[in-house]
Design brief:
The protein contains four helices and eight strands, in the order E-E-H-E-E-H-H-H-E-E-E-E. The protein is α+β, with helices and mostly antiparallel strands. A five-stranded antiparallel β-sheet has the order 1-8-3-5-6, covered by helices on one side. A three-stranded antiparallel β-sheet has the order 2-7-4.
């Protein structure tokens, strides 16, 4: 079994910034030389998330609105006594820090309208890294 790991690095604009990383993940898979296996896309951090969603402007705005409605900012969370970003942590927990995809015949398997996004949930712009790890044969 072979393992290939790369880190994607980029800056975000702060809450709720959506960064499409689909093409970068596909590039890592192709460059890995792995024909069949899996690719893990993982964000180290407690206020970022990895999701799949269609890259369509209306849907992306709907997604942002839904997050704000599900877990509103300033709703009396106890963690806000520390740094006023409890909603960021809660949203990240709800969405998750990783996604895993199959690799078949050297290509990432995903649906036509299924793009991979990093979601910045913290209250300020950040420098982020996402770990992309391809394993297989």
């Amino acid at each position: 079994m072979k393992v290939h790991t790369e880190k994607l690095r980029f800056s975000t604009e702060g809450e709720i910034d959506l960064v499409d990383i689909t093409h970068e993940v596909e590039r890592v898979v192709e460059e890995s030389g792995i024909r069949n296996g899996q690719v893990l896309v993982f964000v180290p951090g407690a206020t970022g998330a990895i999701v799949t969603i269609e890259h369509e402007s209306g849907l992306l705005e709907d997604f942002k609105r839904a997050l704000k409605e599900l877990i509103p900012k300033g709703a009396g969370y106890l963690h806000d006594r520390i740094d006023d970003n409890a909603h960021s942590h809660l949203r990240a927990t709800l969405l998750g820090a990783s996604e895993c995809f199959p690799v078949v015949d050297g290509r990432l398997v995903r649906g036509t309208w299924q793009q991979i996004f990093f979601v910045e949930l913290d209250v300020r712009p950040r420098h982020r890294r996402v770990v992309v790890q391809v394993t297989g044969e």
